[in-house]
Automatic annotation (TrEMBL):
The Pyridoxamine 5'-phosphate oxidase N-terminal domain, residue ranges: 4-121
One Pfam family from the record: PNPOx_N
Biological source species: Methanospirillum lacunae
Name of protein: Pyridoxamine 5-phosphate oxidase
Sections of the chain in a coiled coil: none
Alphabetized InterPro entries for the sequence: Pyridox_Oxase_N, Split_barrel_FMN-bd
Organism classification: Archaea, Methanobacteriati, Methanobacteriota, Stenosarchaea group, Methanomicrobia
Length: 134
């Protein structure tokens, strides 16, 4: 398990939309913007599924994903890779539903993707591009 540094956690908190990359069991890639994304602790990210189709199908077939942190307010660019578990009920799902409804009531909050961080990589251009940071 990988623990995010305070600097990476700060970059996370500066962003509102996170590209989520997944792949099918056959390796067909998909990337989609996610808005219901929560840093639960420095090792865990939750993503609420409100409108997923391909992304959800992919993580059910192939429980790996990546997101990247980059944009206004983020000091740096980080690719985060993770192992994914999907929940459609239980206390974690209920908590995620509450968190989503606090931001935007009425969203369906169909399922919860729990991302356990497995690696962090530099994604700024330059000689360290692609270098594993954590």
């Amino acid at each position: 398990m990988v623990t995010l540094t305070p600097e990476i956690c700060e970059a996370f908190s500066a962003l509102k939309v996170f590209p989520l990359a997944t792949a099918s069991k056959d390796g067909i890639p998909n990337v989609a913007p996610m808005g219901s994304v929560f840093l639960i602790d420095p090792e865990t990210i939750w993503i609420g599924d409100n409108f997923m189709h391909k992304s959800l199908k992919n993580v059910l077939e192939n429980p790996k994903a990546a997101i990247y942190l980059y944009g206004a307010g983020a000091k740096g660019c980080y690719q985060i890779k993770a192992d994914v578990t999907v929940k459609t009920s239980g206390p974690e799902h209920a908590r995620m539903t509450e968190m989503i409804h606090e931001k935007k009531p009425g969203l369906p909050a169909k399922s919860l993707l729990i991302l356990k961080i497995s690696g962090v990589f530099e994604c700024m251009p330059g000689t360290d591009a692609g270098k594993q940071l954590l």
